[in-house]
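Supplementary notes for students who missed Thursday's class. We covered one full example, reproduced here. Read the sequence, then the structure, then the short commentary at the end.
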Amino acid sequence: MLEEEEEEETEEEEVGEETEKEEEEEMEEKEEKSLEQREKEQEKSSWRKKALTPSPLRRLCEVERTVATFKADLPPVVDELRRAVDNFRMKLQTTEHLSWLGFYKEGIPEPRGSQINSHPYWKHVQYRRKVEDELTTVFTKFREICDAVIEEDTKEVLRLPSFNNWAWEDWEILLLLQHMYNDLGLTTHFGIEKEVLRNFLCRVYYCYNEVPFHNFQHAFCVTQMMYGMVWKCDLIKRIGLLDVLILLTSCICHDLDHPGFNNIYQINAKTELALRYNDISPLENHHCSIAFTVLEREDCNIFR
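Structure (token representation):
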């Protein structure tokens, strides 16, 4: 009997412990739920505060509306400040701000072939031309050496992709370009006169601007690489002399009169080139137009 009573007592104790654990677990769950609810409520209240608190942009808009409402009562200094801000915005949208960095000077002309216009943006698009004294020096020195014979070592190296394009002066580059036409047999096959070819090369040099990258040296780099590919790939046999003539001339002219700013800038700044070509590749169209303008000259037309 005693043993049975002890067993019943132990069972009751175990049942009591289990119920206590269950109650504790229920209490913990309730506490967790209440904490979650509190956190959610706090988040909601914080979001309400954020929504009710005006952002800097909203405050600025409110200030602008207030200023617009009381515009008649504002002092003249506010209008002066507004005009100063508009002028500053205009400078940032055009090339004029580059003068602060010394990238160009006042008085540089507009794109070659452009007409005088009254568009407010066009007067800000200024090109960095070569100095007349520099042009005279280059043309004079080229004329002095234009009949010179290039050494065989230079001829061989000129056909290689590893040719050092930066070791040559501008008048020497003109001589190397002349040699390319002669070396490929283009002058003989198409009857290109020496003087016409030289005038063409000088005019091309004249039409390249003093910009950091898309300048005359860059045009020579591209042309020299194409010249090397013609020999390396034996393109004369594969595509013929006419296509080789077109390739070489296209390389020389491919960035004529480049202003130093890309198409995105031309379009965003609403420059003359962007408006002229309806935002469709304005620079490429301009390079091609200048090339045809050069070739239209009787003394420069190597295709006649």
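Commentary. The chain has 14 helices and no strands. The domain at 132-296 is CATH 1.10.1300.10 (Catalytic domain of cyclic nucleotide phosphodiesterase 4b2b). If anything here is unclear, bring it to office hours.
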